[in-house]
UniProtKB/TrEMBL annotation:
It comes from Drosophila virilis (Fruit fly). This is Nuclear RNA export factor 2. Residues 594-754 form the NTF2 domain. It comes from the Eukaryota. GO terms for cellular component: nucleus. Residues 786-840 form the TAP-C domain. Pfam families: LRR_NXF1-5 (PF24048), NXF_NTF2 (PF22602), TAP_C (PF03943). One of its GO terms (biological process) is poly(A)+ mRNA export from nucleus. Belongs to the NXF family. It is found in: Nucleus. Keywords: Leucine-rich repeat, mRNA transport, Nucleus, Repeat, Transport. One of its GO terms (molecular function) is RNA binding.
């Protein structure tokens, strides 16, 4: 029933922005309070809502937002725009018009609303409090004007041009006199319809940014279906239902979808719940959709390290004991505001503190965010207690050229999340990685750079820890027993193998690769005395530098492994102690450049003038070549040298460039393949002493390589010269070869130096005779397991056959002859001898 009471004072609402003022007059208005129905029709005139909170919300952080949230909840998605919201000490008020569906919702509730704090508030409603006149404020019209402006200035956002930016839409300054919420489905539908009806500008839209709008219902977006967009940003909303999201976006297609900071992303079923949208979007939150599960981390979605869990630092270490039996995730947070340390470097320092006597420690879900390195661990309370109590939550960083150790204090947040379905299980990941790394055909367990295995993206496995290494080898021994004959542990930062009894459990093990690790003393591999190894590789460990003579190195290793037949890929029966290790590779992948692929081939063709012209293929029009000759003929020939000898030396001096004698000597810088070949073709024929060569690959990456080589060469029979050459190689083309993975490199800078040989070089030069090329090539070469494995891989790439068919043709029928295998495949394919299930 209409309420009867003293009338409020009439007033004029003037917005001061050009809109016609609204004159509120209560004499002819009708007031309703605690009613469930009203008389007649509300019409199109203005209606005033009064919210009687009686001051109970005055001490809340934002009473207005609490009331508006309750108001919009009450209208249940109907279109509703509160105008001229006024806050009062006991009563708040606002105006509305043309909102009968929403008005009915309030009366169905008995003109009551409930705020999120649980307080129930009563409403009073004044019908026909003001006439609707032309040029008065119209929220729908203002919204259409704002959208028209935004359509006229589409943005470049997240790499996509033509994005309509509706983020935080309610904060637009044009809405200062009324409330607009896209979280209200009626309002959102009005906005989407307005955009869709603007045919002239709608076609230019390439993406939508709807971030930070409290959206929970995206049904209005369906009118934009069946069009390919570049971006749909829904981050920072209130999307909770995966089923509703997939239904609403069923026909929406975009390259990028942003969902970060929605409740949905913190659910236990995320990201699996998004699978129905797999064909609609390529990238979700910056991660390829097909890799979203692998890249998922609770630190991005489920955990807020600012408030979740209990903080433990140096000031409250005593609270740690209450988490002794916890099975939840705990977060480590290590401050690094300048991002001084990369992930690998950080864990190298951190694991110095981790005890090898306590439980295994597997950092999971590492990320750098907010100036901190963050990762999660669980089921390792004893290690955490050690790091808190014994190490005082400090990470020690050694300083070069100083005995001082820098300390970085860090802190923990305990119980930040429970273990949920889909969370990573380190032991399961490791077992899966072992299975992926085992080649059953060749019986090789290749754990080289084990951390780089695909399934370990979210788990850090530190083989520096003897306990973790022992655990992994124990898993391997259970899975493969005597099937493993070759174990490769190179490039894993292993410190030693002592106290590892699990190696002896691999009773069929014959070869072990420990190259490029951190083993600094022969005593660290004493456990190998129990393993009957035939082949061992230790190259690249610091222990190798402790021996000045190869014979001493071999003797020390054989004391540990007396049955050893091969050491560092050298057959010990060939008396390898005659030569010393003298080459350096900054990256093992550069090894191919120092052999027949480039360096040896280049030097051999340089030796003979009739083959030297072939070197032109290594140069480009912008290549640079310089030659320096500092050879002093009087030092090596105290007796007056012959004229013939002087002429040969002068051929080098003629092209020599010596900036010490002439700082302006620039005319002998040769640029371009044509000019370089003119110089090379005029130099004498020579013979290199390949035993004397020392090679240094100083730089190697996917774009460039720098190779330095020095040694001795002979010009004729009586002129011995020392030389050095430095090549700067740059990638010229990619995607070559059968597998489209090969690349071509060209020389962009070369420096050739001729000098006097040292007394040692003169004494040792040409003591060993190299086999002729034809004889060398005719010698049978036993292919390694790696070569055979690579042949099978390439054969499968070319033919598309299943592994067992590849093995049958390459190994059994062609005896590893690759050309013969391809011919056999073509014959079988032509004769229809290959069934359909032979192909992948």
């Amino acid at each position: 029933m209409p309420a009867i009471r003293s009338l409020p004072q009439d007033r004029l609402v003037d917005f001061g922005d050009g809109h016609q003022p609204i004159l509120l007059q209560y004499r002819c208005a009708k007031r309703y309070y605690k009613c469930k129905n009203y008389d007649g029709s509300p019409g199109l005139n203005w209606i005033e809502f009064c919210v009687h909170h009686e001051g109970v919300l005055n001490f809340a952080a934002n009473p207005k937002q609490l009331i508006l949230n309750a108001v919009f909840d009450a209208v249940e998605g109907e279109q509703f725009f509160p105008v001229n919201y006024q806050c009062g000490s006991h009563v708040d008020s606002f105006l509305v018009r043309a909102c009968k569906p929403a008005l009915d919702k309030f009366f169905n509730r008995g003109l009551k609303i409930r705020v999120s704090t649980g307080v129930e508030l009563h409403l009073s409603v004044w019908f026909n409090v003001a006439d609707n006149q032309r040029n008065q404020i119209s929220p729908a019209f203002v919204i259409s004007q704002v959208i028209d402006r935004l359509l006229g200035r589409l943005e470049h956002y997240h790499g996509v041009h033509g994005v309509l930016n509706l983020s935080n839409f309610s904060a637009n300054p044009y809405f200062k006199h009324f409330e607009v919420r896209l979280s209200n489905p009626g309002t959102f539908h009005l906005v989407c319809s307005t955009i869709n009806n603007n045919d002239d500008r709608r076609r230019a839209i390439k993406g939508f940014c709807l971030a930070h709008n409290q959206l929970s219902d995206l049904g209005a977006l369906r009118i934009f279906g069946d069009i390919d967009y570049g971006l749909l940003d829904l981050s920072g909303n209130m999307l909770t239902s995966a089923k509703r999201l997939c239904s609403d976006l069923q026909r929406i297609r975009a390259k990028q979808l942003n969902l970060a900071n929605n409740p949905l992303t913190k659910s236990a079923k995320y990201p699996d719940c998004l699978k129905p949208l797999l064909g609609n979007f390529e990238i979700v939150d910056g991660v390829p959709f097909d890799k979203l599960y692998k890249m998922y981390t609770p630190l991005n979605y489920e955990i807020d390290v600012e408030c979740d869990g209990v903080r433990i630092d140096w000031s409250n270490k005593s609270r740690l004991a209450q988490f002794k039996d916890s099975k939840d995730w705990h977060a480590f947070l290590i401050p690094d505001p300048e991002h001084e340390f990369a992930k690998e470097e950080l864990f190298d320092y951190f694991f110095i503190l981790v005890s090898s006597e306590l439980s295994e420690f597997y950092p999971c879900y590492y990320k750098y965010d907010g100036g901190e390195h963050r990762f999660l661990v669980r089921d390792c309370y004893d290690q955490i207690e050690h790091l808190v109590v014994n190490c005082n939550l400090e990470m020690k960083i050694a300083q070069l050229n100083s005995n001082y150790q820098r300390s970085i204090a860090y802190y923990l947040r305990m119980n930040v999340s429970t273990l949920k379905q889909g969370h990573v299980e380190p032991k399961q990941c490791i077992e899966e990685a072992l299975q992926k790394r085992f080649n059953a055909i060749n019986r090789v367990l290749n754990l080289e750079q084990f951390q780089n295995t695909d399934v370990l993206e979210n788990v850090h496995v530190c083989l520096t820890s003897a306990r973790i290494l022992n655990s992994i080898l124990r898993m391997a021994s259970r899975k493969f027993l005597g099937n493993c004959v070759d174990l490769r542990l190179c490039n894993n930062k292993i410190l030693g193998l002592n106290n590892l009894r699990t190696l002896s459990l691999l009773n069929g093990l014959q070869a072990l690769d420990l190259g490029q690790n951190w083993i600094d003393d022969i005593t660290a591999i004493g456990a190998l005395s129990e393993v009957p190894l035939k082949s061992l590789r230790l190259h690249g460990n610091s222990l190798c530098r402790k021996y000045s003579l190869p014979s001493a190195y071999i003797r020390a290793v054989k004391e540990v492994c007396p049955g050893l037949q091969r050491l560092d890929d050298v057959d010990l029966s060939s008396r390898p102690g005659l030569t010393t290790q003298k080459d350096y590779l900054c990256d093992p992948a550069a090894y191919e450049l120092t052999g027949e692929l480039f360096l040896c081939q280049f030097l051999r063709e340089f030796e003979l003038s009739d083959q030297r012209i072939n070197l032109s293929r290594f140069y480009t029009d912008s290549s640079i070549f310089t030659l320096t000759c500092s050879y002093d003929i009087r030092r090596c020939h105290p007796v007056k040298p012959s004229n013939e000898l002087c002429k040969r030396i002068n051929k080098y001096n003629y092209f020599s460039r010596n900036l010490l004698k002439n700082s302006r000597d620039t005319c002998r810088v040769h640029v371009g393949g044509h000019d370089i070949m003119l110089v090379l073709m005029q130099l004498p024929e020579v013979t290199h002493d390949y035993v004397s060569l020392q090679t240094d690959v100083m730089h190697y990456d996917d774009q460039m390589a720098i190779i330095y080589v020095n040694g001795v060469l002979r010009d004729g029979s009586d002129l011995l010269l020392a030389f050095s050459r430095q090549f700067v190689l740059k990638v010229d083309a990619n995607g070559l070869g059968v597998g489209k993975r090969a690349r071509s490199m060209k020389i962009i800078n070369e420096r050739f130096n001729i000098m006097n040989p040292s007394p040692k070089q003169q004494r040792d030069a040409f003591k060993f005779v190299e086999l002729p090329m034809d004889q060398e090539l005719s010698m049978p070469v036993e292919e390694t397991v790696d070569v055979k494995e690579h042949k099978l891989y390439i054969f499968q790439e070319i033919t598309g056959l299943r592994p067992k068919w590849c093995t049958r043709i390459v190994q059994e029928e062609a005896n590893w002859d690759f050309q013969l295998a391809l011919e056999q495949f073509l014959r079988m394919e032509t004769a229809n001898e290959l069934p359909d299930d032979a192909f992948l």
